[in-house]
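Fig. S4 source data, part A: sequence.
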Amino acid sequence: MEFRVPRMNERESRAWRGLIAVTQLLPAALDARLQRDAQLTHFEFGVLTILHTMRGPAMRMTELAEATNATLPRLSNVCSRLEKRGLIERSPCADDRRATNVGLTTAGRRALIHSIPDHIATVRSVVVDALSEEQLDALADITDTIIERLASLDDAAPPPAASRTAR
């Protein structure tokens, strides 16, 4: 017998339990593969990806935190690890002494580019290839709807990067 979430009907309970399971299992699976194949966590991979795709040689830590949906303390800890490994470099912001810029090093760019094929293969095998085209469209619609709802909450959760503007 499956557990039913209190105050939800069977359909709602099944959808909610499924979403919770995916949000717990998918990051762990991606982390495990990236750790094994590239010695990166999924979050570190995301940080390197954003730095790789940005315009200019560096961006402010606050902008990177927004882009990764992370708090500054979490991002600072991750950046310390990445900097020790020579994958990123931090420097004082010339325009604002209180701010810190962060940029991708050549080694960081190389590590990211090396990790992309295996990571995309994992994403395909775990998510994309498991779904039909219609299911992929539905998943995109569902996640867009939830992201919009999260963005509208009053300080309950930071709005996702995709729906935020720079502050």
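Fig. S4 source data, part B ends here. Confidence is low (pLDDT under 50) at residues 163-167.
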